[in-house]
């Protein structure tokens, strides 16, 4: 009897094949992809697995980051009527939040995006010499979001479903249910309505020039984060599954990371 102590010089040792459980663990599920998309979009869940509206809007600090630079610009311009100085004041206000996040050792993504937006807005206003052009970038941003959301509904991938489907542990299974697909389409239309309302109210004020500047700035503050939170909350309520409706439990709710 020949006893082999190992593979010969031309033989390769047998490699252990991964089991089916390991293969499934290595391959991201649809629910995992949905969760990743929602988290990148800034949607936050609370400990009970429900959408956290305030955190999804960036928290108190995130809301302040979106409001303060525009408010500083308005006050500075109304007091001094000096456009360059007012634009610098707005940039300084945005930069302060970046420094605060550095001190807090918190992610800089939101603060950097905010200061970039303020910088572009300041450049537009300084280039044209019109104070109202500080707010024109928001119009184009709203139009881009509206177009993207309308397209998402048309191709039966409504944005509300991609976001809320993660929070409700549905993954992408909601697309197989015509009622859930319709509900998420309606929820997306709610967000579209919020964005469209901003344009309906603010664009006429913009074309009023200097006379409409104070009203335009005020509407930007009111119809910014506060209106977004309200629209998101209404969309969440309108897209609630009916009692007893089957839902995918592939993703378990987890505590959101603090922002």
Automatic annotation (TrEMBL):
Keywords: Membrane, Transmembrane, Transmembrane helix. The chain crosses the membrane at residues 85-103, 108-125, 145-166, 186-207, 213-239. The keyword Transmembrane applies. InterPro entries: UCP010219. Residues 1-25 are annotated as: Disordered. It comes from the Bacteria. The keyword Transmembrane applies. This is DUF3159 domain-containing protein. It comes from Arthrobacter terricola.
């Amino acid at each position: 009897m020949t006893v082999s102590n190992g593979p010969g010089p031309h033989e390769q040792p047998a490699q252990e094949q991964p089991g089916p459980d390991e293969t499934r663990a290595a391959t991201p599920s649809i629910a995992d992809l949905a969760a990743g998309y929602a988290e990148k979009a800034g949607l936050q869940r609370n400990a009970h697995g429900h959408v956290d509206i305030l955190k999804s809007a960036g928290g108190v600090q995130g809301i302040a980051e979106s409001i303060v630079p525009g408010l500083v610009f308005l006050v500075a311009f109304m007091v001094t009527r000096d456009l360059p100085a007012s634009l610098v004041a707005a940039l300084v206000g945005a930069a302060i939040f970046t420094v605060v996040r550095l001190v807090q050792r918190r992610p800089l993504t939101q603060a950097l995006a905010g200061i970039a937006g303020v910088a572009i807005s300041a450049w537009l206003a300084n280039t044209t010499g019109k104070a109202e052009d500080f707010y024109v970038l928001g119009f184009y941003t709203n139009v881009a979001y509206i177009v993207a959301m309308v397209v998402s509904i048309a191709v039966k991938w409504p944005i509300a479903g991609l976001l809320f489907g993660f929070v409700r542990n549905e993954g992408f299974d909601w697309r197989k249910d015509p009622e859930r697909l319709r509900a998420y389409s309606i929820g997306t239309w709610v967000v579209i309505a919020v964005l469209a309302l901003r344009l309906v109210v603010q664009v006429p004020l913009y074309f009023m020039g200097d006379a409409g500047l104070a009203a335009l700035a005020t509407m930007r503050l009111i119809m910014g984060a506060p209106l977004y939170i309200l629209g998101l909350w209404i969309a969440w309520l309108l897209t609630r599954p009916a009692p007893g409706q089957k839902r995918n439990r592939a993703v378990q709710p987890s505590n959101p990371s603090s922002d």
